[in-house]
Amino acid sequence: MQWDDASEKILVTMLGHLGFSVEVERVQSDDGLCLQIKVDESKAIIGRNGDRLEDLQYLVNRILNKHFPDAPRVKVDCDNYRHEQEGKLVEKAKALAEKVVESGKSVRTRPLNAYYRRIVHNSLAEVDGISTASPSGNARYKRIEIKPA
């Protein structure tokens, strides 16, 4: 069994144990493999602000890496929720960066998990006049400081 087959099986099995009958579509993107969940009760799987999707993704990747240590990270999405949220996050980050360039004062994002922090750092890497930094530490959610360069 290949790691991509295993990742889909892990997700379908977990959701099956939780009482969901789902269909999963594999979507290849720039970020790698995304398992897109197709289900009627999408809100129950997405959770509040995508927290259940984050947890499902975390668990799928932990189990997958136990059996396939070299497997790349797999993204889990439902009804394109994460894709839409990522787009909104990039727009918000760029607006904050413009504010920093105009005002010359640092701003901080809302607390973000590691995945979303990486998206913000990458989206602002090419913006002139600013730099980004995350605090060190073990906290799951951290704010990114966007400051003048």
TrEMBL record:
Pfam families attached to this UniProt entry: R3H (PF01424)
**Which PROSITE patterns has this protein been placed in?**
R3H
- Where is the R3H domain positioned along the sequence? 83-149
Designated name of the protein: Protein jag
Q: Which domain of life, per UniProt?
A: Bacteria
State the organism's lineage.
Bacteria, Pseudomonadati, Verrucomicrobiota, Verrucomicrobiia, Verrucomicrobiales
